[in-house]
Write a structure and sequence with these properties.
Order of helices and strands: EHEHEHEHEEEHEHEEEHEHEE
Distance between the termini: 33 Å
Helix content: 25-40%
Strand order of the largest sheet: 1-12-14-13
Number of strands: 14
Strand content: 15-25%
Shape: elongated
Number of helices: 8
């Protein structure tokens, strides 16, 4: 394969504005919450395959759901369908997905009363899920497991009649994603809390109608930071829908690129990247 790259300077007119598709992590969480609370409207959703699989799984209306390689969708939908009364679902994925363990999440949901059965190998997809109204209550789980297992439980917890008190045992290894999940719940008006390694999520029957614009991934913004860093002094561009108080750990790129002469200016729901100086010495 022959690949050729051409250098093209950014238009130095200080008015170039770009819109990047929303964060996959936020989109998948909000899609699940939108299915629980249909008054929620989502804008700038991620165009990723994982988010497409998540959306298809929630709304295809079929009894067999194949999410392909979408790992987040497999974990989130397992919890979602387990808590959906009168749903009878066969949840499967690609051959590779059927090699990825899900036993920790299934065990946790079973402790809450879920009816989930393995169709092939114990501890792995595909799954046969018979959804029911779950009571919730107190549950303990190791803190060093995948944050997606914990987020899956937190996202469906508002539908539990007794809510959920989730105690994490040990040291948490991926707290930013858990903080994102809790912050989105709070943004919707669900009064969940975190204190002393314990999440407490109350039963929430309904939320106020609202619209959420999904923030793009900061990791996607990093490419445009690099473009500005390699451009002449004075180059500027705007990226829409980025937040100064972002939930994403990759927001750190705004600080990192200061060393490369790029300043970030926050203007409400957008950021401006400005090349202020050239790199004077190696980093």
């Amino acid at each position: 394969m022959d690949i050729r790259l051409k250098k093209k300077r950014l238009k130095n007119d200080n008015n170039l504005t770009l819109t990047i598709g929303g964060s996959k992590s936020e989109t998948n969480r909000l899609l699940l919450l939108q299915s629980l609370y249909p008054t929620l409207q989502i804008e700038n959703a991620s165009p990723s395959k994982d988010s497409e699989a998540m959306y298809k799984g929630l709304y295809c209306g079929e009894s067999t759901i194949d999410i392909g390689d979408a790992g987040t969708a497999m974990r989130f939908l397992t919890a979602y369908f387990a808590a959906c009364q009168d749903k009878d679902i066969f949840l499967t994925g690609s051959a590779r997905m059927q090699e990825r363990p899900i036993g920790i999440l299934v065990d946790a949901l079973r402790q809450l009363g879920a009816d989930i059965y393995y169709s092939k190998a114990e501890g792995f997809p595909p799954l046969h899920i018979r959804g029911k109204q779950l009571r919730g209550g107190l549950l303990s789980i190791k803190a060093n497991v995948s944050s997606q297992y914990i987020s899956a439980l937190l996202l469906v917890a508002p539908s539990f009649t007794d809510g959920l008190i989730l105690q994490l045992e040990g040291e948490i290894t991926s707290f930013p994603y858990l903080r994102m999940t809790l912050s989105l719940l709070n943004e919707l008006g669900i009064e969940g809390t975190y204190e002393e390694n314990t999440f407490t999520i109350p039963y929430t029957m309904a939320i106020a109608p609202q619209r959420i614009v999904v923030e793009p991934d900061w990791s996607s913004a990093s490419y445009f930071y690099s473009m500005v860093a390699l451009s002449p002094i004075g180059t500027s561009l705007y990226l829409e829908h980025y937040k100064e108080r972002s939930l994403q750990g990759d927001r750190i790129v705004a600080d990192i690129y200061q060393a490369f002469g790029v300043r970030t200016i926050f203007w409400g729901d957008k950021i401006q990247l400005v090349k202020e100086r050239d790199l004077l010495s190696p980093i």
